[in-house]
Amino acid sequence: MTTGLSGKVALVTGSSQGIGAGAALSLARGGVDVAVNYLRAAELAQEVCEQIRALGRQAHVIQADVTDAEAVRHMVAEVEQTIGPIDILVNNAGHNPARTILEISEADWDWVLDLNLKAYFLCTKAVLPGMLERKEGRIINITSISGQRGGFSCDVDYSAAKAGIMGFTRALARWAAPRGILVNAIAPGYIETQMQGGVISPHLASLIDRVPLKRQGTPEEIGEVVAFLAGPAATYIVGEVISVNGGAHIA
Description:
Number of strands: 7
Strand content: 5-15%
Order of helices and strands: EHEHEHEHEHHEHHE
Distance between the termini: 29 Å
Helix content: 40-55%
Number of helices: 8
Shape: globular
Radius of gyration: 17 Å
């Protein structure tokens, strides 16, 4: 567990389940008060908040469409009024419909890029003024092995967005670091999430078999890396994309 984070405030987008929930809970275990953002899974978001409060930290649940600039501005303002200035932003909200290029319409493409890339820009731009004023902050972007290697299902929209996050991270990190804000990214591999319902398709099973560790990762394993990047042990890490995938990127 990362220590040295006590009293900090984090906003984690898409944190009602999966990697986002893992990040929110890992930060809370390190002493962080957390805003749990969701769009539709209200009950799951409330459960995450209850778990955070059970750890002795403040939690605030907030519904917002992170692809909508005005909704994002209202979200950030509400979080800062409720639990305090945002020290840590975890851009996590996203979705992969896993379609081939022939199945993707122009509208599909726009939606996937909006959710998996533009939303990161909107949320970052909304929290930056406060971080710049305080001359400190952490921004952690969740990308994917799909952005590094390309999607195995020809999901070109999702892969393009996740590759874009890596470029966004490095460019922003170069600009933000002299201003006291550290920006990094994490590239998860095959992570076991609630959306799978415990079911592994034959295609996914074959992919997992190629992972050197021969298993999926857990949201908690990603969350611990988020907490590390947010904490005092990561003060000289800037513009990195950290692979957390059981060795899948070298398979």
